[in-house]
Amino acid sequence: MLTKGNYPKWGMHVKGHLSAGDHGRVIKCTADPQGNLVDPVLPTNPDELRAWQKSEQVVWGVLLLTANELHFELLEQYEDQSAWKIWQVIEEHHIQDDASL
Asked: Using 50, 70 and 90 to split pLDDT, how confident is the model at 97?
């Protein structure tokens, strides 16, 4: 369960859970040919796009199942966005909280 103080551990658990079905790719940066990290990008191939959309649904399901009241408001606010967008919002929310300590 994601709480105010356990974001790093929660994030690793979620990524580990999602890696089993390669669903974590929708929330994971990858290296471009020059070695720069780039955000996840929707595939253009129709079959890959269908798999991507399924991964988006799986990620959203995991986020909903592991969030607490603190994060439901964020999830509701971004429910029409990509899994990557809400992942970034949750991360930023916790980085800001950590910086204020």
From this structure: low
Q: Read off the amino acid at residue 87.
A: W
Contact (CB, 8 A) for 21 and 88: no
Measured distance between the N- and C-terminal CA atoms of the chain, rounded to whole angstroms: 21
Query: Does residue 101 have a pLDDT over 70?
Result: no
Residue 24 has what pLDDT?
95
Q: What is the pTM of this model?
A: 0.84
What's the per-residue H, E or C state across the chain?
CCCCCCHHHHHHHHHHHHHCCCHHHHHCCEECCCCCEECCCCCCCHHHHHHHHHHHHHHHHHHHHHCCHHHHHHHHHCCCCCHHHHHHHHHHHHHHHHHCC
Given this model, what pLDDT does residue 26 score?
97
If phi > 0 it is left, if psi is from -120 to 50 it is alpha, else beta; for residue 70 that is alpha
